[in-house]
Amino acid sequence: MSATPDAAGRGDSPHLIDRHGRRARDLRVSLTDRCNLRCTYCMPADGLDWQPAGELLTDDELVRVITVAVQRLGIEEIRFTGGEPLLRKGLAGILARVGALRPRPELSLTTNGIGFARRADEFVAAGLDRINISLDSLDADTFERITRRRRLPDVLAALEAAATAGLTPVKINVVLLRGVNDHEAPDLLRFALDHGYQLRFIEQMPLDAGHIWSRERMVTADEIQQRLSARFDLTPDPGARLGEPAELFRVDGGPATVGIIASVTRPFCGDCDRTRLTADGQIRTCLFSRAETDLRAILRGGGPADRIDEDIARLWRATTWGKLPGHGIDDPSFLQPDRPMSAIGG
Ligand code: SAM
Ligand code: SF4
Fold it and tell me: Is the pTM of this model over 0.90?
């Protein structure tokens, strides 16, 4: 569904503000909808119908949109994601070009880590500042049961390589699934503490292509806290939340922390500072949006460069102004977005 934004009443701020008082500073860019894993909570076993190459933004188009976001709209952080962003051939070049922008945005990557180990130094040299690596189990069989691929050693190598390359603190994202890996929560935290990684649990969200999510089966933030508390002393770290979706807890008095991102049971929409760009050039104001705004048509429509950039900026501002106050998962009329997480950019 395409949106027709209405910016009446927003004033003339250059930034991405909305009518609920929020400002987007953090842009999530999906570089591809493809992936080399098939996590059960994200993708079907057979994958999806990948978007045709011609529909994806080229590297030049992507850098151009990001330049508008940084220089005209006040975006301060760019996080590259997907699908699996390491599958994007031009990734190092894109990082280098975006890292050369002034003001320079912070550059980060959310990845499953496969293939990262041998390219960590290249990405850091290109400008990568921070990384989140997804790891749901330390047991090879459980890892395979969740991701449908036997690639645990690749992910462990990616974590080590990221730390060695100086991308510290390396963050780990975990999704817990009831009866599959939820018993591993304390072991995953022990592993992270021992290696100096920062662990964050993400509540499973209704964004999977197979529509297997159910509120009854999802592992809640409360349960995660309980499971961890059996082995660790957790105390809330109140100062730490600013601009972070994760609620942080000090572990055994600190300084180490663990995060819980409770998008479903403790939504943080009121503090949301994100905006999203899909690999095919659509803006989404929220992971759960059911509407998108097409930038690709403007990019490919021809005309003077400055006018194209200004049209993109204007449309993005208007779209953001109409951002809904919350994702509405708790609303009885909630409908899962048509695109799964892997095609939006998680
Ligand atoms: N492929 C990369 C990865 O797995 O890190 C980047 C894309 S992935 C969609 C981004 C993050 O979203 C991962 O940490 C993944 O575990 C998480 N994720 C995927 N589907 C999810 C869901 N239904 N609920 C909660 N988190 C999910
Ligand atoms: Fe791929 Fe990431 Fe989705 Fe897993 S969560 S299937 S690694 S995009």
Answer: yes
